[in-house]
Fold this protein.
Amino acid sequence: MRYKGVFFDLDGTLLPVDLEEFIARYIEALTAKVAPHVEPQRFRKALLESTAKMMNNDGSRTNEEAFMEAFFARVDIEPRELVPVFEDFYRREYRLLGRGIQARPEARRAVELAAAGGAQVVLATNPLFPRMAVEVRLEWAGLDAFPFRHITTYENSRYCKPNPGYYADILAATGLRGEECLMVGNDTLEDLAAAELGFDTFLLEDFLIERGYPHAPTWRGGWGDLLDVLTGNG
Ligand SMILES: [Mg+2]
């Protein structure tokens, strides 16, 4: 295969899920979990504002640090009291949000094709979540056993998509250059931003999120088209 690195987005790409609908259910479940500790309206506001802070992280600290600092400045509870509640949420209630999600066999085929072609395979999911939440979503996608070379989470990332710094940090961690890589995703802004670093891009249209086209994708289409590209017939 021509690519030395193939990067895959998770939500709406490898994982067949409507992100907007999923996030709404996620916030509802997390708010209910935390309700004994933080009044729901206040919690939602703090969560949304802190997430926005994290999404604009400037690289000076991890996304986890950006989120936690903003969040705990907005609520009257100590991290040592609430962080264990978050962790318990990801171990229990979060898992229930995956009911009804059917893994796509093509997703496994795609990562296996990329690896078989000699590429480093990266899970380039927007790093807004802790590692344990990413791992649960990988289980839903049927990919928890796949040996990704690198997985971005809020603990190991300092930027969010579409900041080019997000992609630059992965290149630095893997020793790849953008020109050697393909980014596969379903979001015209967040995923196609990899083109700024010289990546080729594939826009997967099953759960397409259109936010304008700052960069035209190299390819676009469905799973069949992507598998063709990965087998070198693109
Ligand atoms: Mg996505």
In short: The chain has a mean pLDDT of 96. The chain has two domains: 5-17+103-230, 20-96.
